[in-house]
Amino acid sequence: MNRYSNKASVAADTLALMRLSGKRALVIGGGGAGIGRAVTNAFGAEGAAVVVADIDADRASEAADALREQGFTAYGVAGDVRSLTDIEAMVAGAVEKLGGLDVLVTVVGGQVAFVPAVKLHEMADRDWDTIYEVNLRYVARAVRAALRVFLEQGSGGTIVSVGSVTGFMAAPQQAAYGVMKAGLLSLARTVSAEYAADGIRMNVAAAGAVATAVANAAGDGSWVDEVPVGRLGRSEEVAAAVVYLASDESAYMTGQQLVLDGGVSVRGPFS
Ligand SMILES: NC(=O)c1ccc[n+]([C@@H]2O[C@H](COP(=O)([O-])OP(=O)(O)OC[C@H]3O[C@@H](n4cnc5c(N)ncnc54)[C@H](O)[C@@H]3O)[C@@H](O)[C@H]2O)c1
């Protein structure tokens, strides 16, 4: 394998254009489908060597196989983000398989895929905990494990979390989801303050409504009318932002979020 790329046969001028050449990345959760799959594909195309994790082992290996068929370095692993043991195994496994780690991406999250969308007074206590586990607790755990690796390696590192506009707008019937997504930005800010001097950055890619299986199941789609650009976002558009935030092009950006929402969050009352 070429030291500067995950693809031995890539020409030097092409290599220079690959924004993640030489980066070793772990995409945690959701690597098999939706936004996570798009991130995995984009990372391969941009030259990163990738370990992709998903609770669904078949999806994870399918995503990795597709990259390998194109000549890239990729491994699929099974893991449940609700388990601390699994999180630590995913990070340690990525380090072992890739010979180190430069980029961590956390993707899994949501509310309606896990518990019912209801107003706060109707929400079961256990459901709040579930939303915490699959949106924020695992991210903090994975970030902590990655930080330990980054600090030991001494060559910095980049963390990108997939967030949501619900983290800074009201989230009717998804209060817990909004609170957890808000927590991602808080985490990114603290990571930036504590570790920028070590060359470690964390940012959030905050999406609006994206056309994935979850979004399609969440309603009749009539709310597309509320999106100024007139359509749902594409997973590939979120993945492009994740690539940017993971790459050295965003080297001066940390503790921030990049919003990809078709204009929803800035739409005024008179538009
Ligand atoms: N789809 C949207 O409209 C939208 C909007 C804003 C933000 N987001 C965010 O994007 C991220 C991904 O959403 P998506 O719509 O692509 O989801 P998705 O349902 O399309 O993909 C979810 C993936 O996560 C995996 N997964 C589920 N539970 C897991 C677990 N416990 N451990 C490991 N893997 C698990 C599933 O197998 C699946 O492959 C989430 O953080 C979500 O909050 C999505």
Automatic annotation (TrEMBL):
Keywords tagged on the record: Oxidoreductase
Gene Ontology molecular functions: oxidoreductase activity
Organism domain of life: Bacteria
Q: Which Gene3D superfamilies match?
A: NAD(P)-binding Rossmann-like Domain (3.40.50.720)
Concerning InterPro entries, the annotation shows:
NAD(P)-bd_dom_sf, SDR_fam
Please list every transmembrane segment annotated in the UniProt record, as residue ranges: none
Recorded hits in PANTHER family, A to Z, give:
DEHYDROGENASES, SHORT CHAIN, SHORT-CHAIN TYPE DEHYDROGENASE_REDUCTASE BLR2146-RELATED
Q: Which family does it belong to?
A: Belongs to the short-chain dehydrogenases/reductases (SDR) family.
Q: What is this protein called?
A: 3-oxoacyl-[acyl-carrier protein] reductase
Please name the source species: Kribbella antiqua
